[in-house]
Amino acid sequence: MFDLPHNFGDYTLVAFIGRTRGGILYQAIQQGMDRSVFLELLDPDNPEGVGVEDFLMKARTRAAINAPVLGTVYEASQAQGYWFVTSEQLGGSSLQSMLDRGQTLSMKDLLKVIETVGNVCGRYERLRTAFNIMEPRHIFLDDKSAVRLMNTAVPGDFHEETSRDQMKRLGIDLPPLVTPDVPGTTRMRTLLEWMREGQNGKPMQWDQVMELVAAVREQLGLSPRVTTHRYTVPVESRRKAGKKLLWAGMGLLGVGIAAAAVLLLFPREKETVSRPHVPAPKHYPDFSSSDHTEVRVTLPGGGELIVGAHEITLESYRLFLDQWARLTPELREEYSHPDQPDKRTASHIPQDWEAMWKAASTPGGKWKGRKITPRSPVVNVTFWDAWAYASWKPVAPGEPRYRLPERGEWMALGNMLETGEKGDRTLVIDRYSNDHDLKTGVCGMASGVMEWTSSMEKDPARVKEPPGPVACGGDWRQPGISNRVEYLRSRGESRDNLGFRIVRNVL
């Protein structure tokens, strides 16, 4: 296992997406350009045996394909001893996410998907470029019905079988996205059947598919697509194709009948995440060397835990907010707690965040009468906020994910502290303060803010009520207490004396 830093050259890793052949795919922020990207990292120990030259050759191959619908390759470079390639992060939702949600598409959008994939297959064929078959996770559709594709070109010789297999793959993947019982449904299902199984026992060609798509467009009263590659059907051919198609014998509707009844794309969730209008630092903080430090602690009774040396700071949380707003709804849901009611739309912006950050970023600034800096613990965060932060924070491949501590773990840590005098009434993290334990290297467990845990327990004072969330530790109101426990009413509760720290297991 290799030690991958959180900040990687000019990039800050946001989220782990998955593994590729020889590599690891992350969502990242390019700091200098302030944009979201896909970052594919060459795994030095990849089991496929992909070397640096092969890794870079794939990037060069994709960069040579110039098509507006394909994601752009930005950079192939090396930083801190690791080779990586960055490319455009496509907007909208992938077809895979729509399939997972049980969503269906309008005939217009399904036709655009087929045409766009066919166009790219034609481009690959003309350039004699090999490519991997595009799956639903490679095809994106935004709220303006624009179709974009991840670039799947690879070094090697072009094979026509791959292009036909791509057609068959669409014929297999798209049927669940067809809206039932609307004008065009039967025609679309027939077209997809022919794409995967052939027509009259003969495999379909992309030229035939494009002519059929053009005919369906004309029959539904949709404007023809303007394309330029070899699969494009001229306007004259489209008119003829509409007359010659074999739809009539299948009981299909005639030209123009369905035009007024074409179903629009299902309403999509609108992005409601708002980014705070507050001063932004020129550069993102360096998690690996300054803002997020952690220590390895042996717990009483055995067992080890990697613990955040202090509570999550405003500085760290601001980076999280900035990057959370760029995540796709699918990734937001993945990093949210399973019980959270608004997994895809929650902004995780704390109450009074703008005033809090403005005071923190102003020299000598105060918030609610107390000194505050970017290194102060973030407060006014709910359990959902704390959970999302811990789930989102990237780790090295194969390492345990970050999480909130359990109540028992927190209390065991608090009882270990030998800090002497405790009680920092400010909201400033200082590893040389009275509440910095020289034995463990952990600070802030008896001052500053109380901290969320992952535990749900019954309040001894409310035995008839169901279990509720638990917070632990001292705070600026009652400093010096590391064994304090408070049973909260709701995971949505937020207060100016409540923050959190994160931990992770030791392999």
Automatic annotation (TrEMBL):
Domain Sulfatase-modifying factor enzyme-like: 308-504
Keyword Cell cycle: no
Keywords: Membrane, Transmembrane, Transmembrane helix
Domain of life: Bacteria
Transmembrane segments: 245-266
Signal sequence region: none
Xref: InterPro entries: CTDL_fold (IPR016187), Kinase-like_dom_sf (IPR011009), SUMF_dom (IPR005532), SUMF_sf (IPR042095)
Any matching Pfam family: FGE-sulfatase
Keyword Transmembrane: yes
Entry protein name: Sulfatase-modifying factor enzyme-like domain-containing protein
